[in-house]
Design goal:
About 55% of the residues lie in helices and about 5% in strands. By secondary structure, it is mainly α. The strands form 2 sheets. A 3-stranded mixed β-sheet has the order 2-1-3. A hairpin with a 5-residue loop joins strand 1 and strand 2.
Length: about 260
């Protein structure tokens, strides 16, 4: 049974299962290409952990107040935390910068804004987030359906329960906050353990750099750098925030070297 998650703190059971039966049958047929059997897919959809989150339909990640007081992006504390994160993991960031040609400060800025250095990676099972956006009528349904199928591809490849991966309400997961299709295209194994794990720092940083490089990042060309970061999140304020934080990190580092 699929559970309907209300706006309150507890789930409410309803007839939603029968209401979406035809859509789920069509979706099941599409997921078969990922290597899951029909029985396996039906078992996943009948899992008691499966829920719909109608409250996310009106949400948007655009236009966040990155420079606002609450976000605190350019505060002294925020910059110092970024500098410490760099210093504590300097070998990883220096290696990624050398291998991909992407400024380590830009990667740190993305980690700061996306997950606050792995502090907030998201609490939603992204299966449920994407299922909600797929089944419940909204302008992102076609996109969400594709991402849900991509999630099954990932789960089959990694031999992982698709309901176990947690992330944002929009279906992004890991320190890098990749959506499933971005994982399939751009995630890389940064520590050479045979798995691209976006919840692991080496893999997450390498994957971010790989994504930016694949989207045109070019040292010495500010416009191409801007476009690469814009591809990561189609929001001008986001890109401004990334470059502002990266610049503050560099200035902080330069100041400390002179002292």
């Amino acid at each position: 049974m699929i559970v309907f998650l209300s706006f309150f703190s507890y789930p409410v059971h309803s007839e939603i299962d029968s209401h979406y039966k035809d859509q789920i049958n069509i979706l099941t047929a599409k997921i078969l290409v990922t290597g899951f059997s029909e029985e396996e897919i039906r078992q996943i959809f009948s899992d008691e952990r499966v829920m719909l989150y109608p409250q996310i339909l009106e949400r948007s990640g655009k236009g966040l107040p990155y420079f606002g007081k609450k976000f605190g992006l350019l505060t002294k504390n925020s910059i110092e935390r970024g500098q410490k994160f760099l210093n504590d993991n300097k070998e990883i960031f220096m290696g990624v910068e050398k291998n991909y040609g992407v400024d380590k400060e830009i990667i740190i800025a993305i980690l700061r804004i996306e997950t606050n250095f792995n502090k907030y990676i998201g609490k939603y099972p992204i299966f449920n987030s994407l299922l909600t956006l797929t089944l419940m009528e909204n302008k992102r349904s076609a996109w969400a359906e594709n991402e849900l199928i991509e999630l099954f591809w990932i789960s089959k490849t990694l031999d992982k329960d698709p309901l176990s991966i947690k992330g944002s309400w929009a279906g992004a997961f890991g320190m890098a906050q990749f959506i499933p299709s971005s994982y399939r295209k751009y995630a890389v194994d940064g520590n050479n353990d045979g798995v691209a794990d976006l919840f692991e720092l080496s893999d997450a940083t390498a994957s971010i750099a790989n994504y930016l490089k694949a989207h045109g990042w070019e040292n010495g060309n500010h416009e191409k750098k801007w476009q690469a970061v814009y591809a990561y999140n189609h929001c001008d304020e986001y890109v401004k925030a990334i470059f502002a934080y990266a610049k503050s990190l560099k200035n902080n580092s330069a100041t400390k070297k002179r002292l």
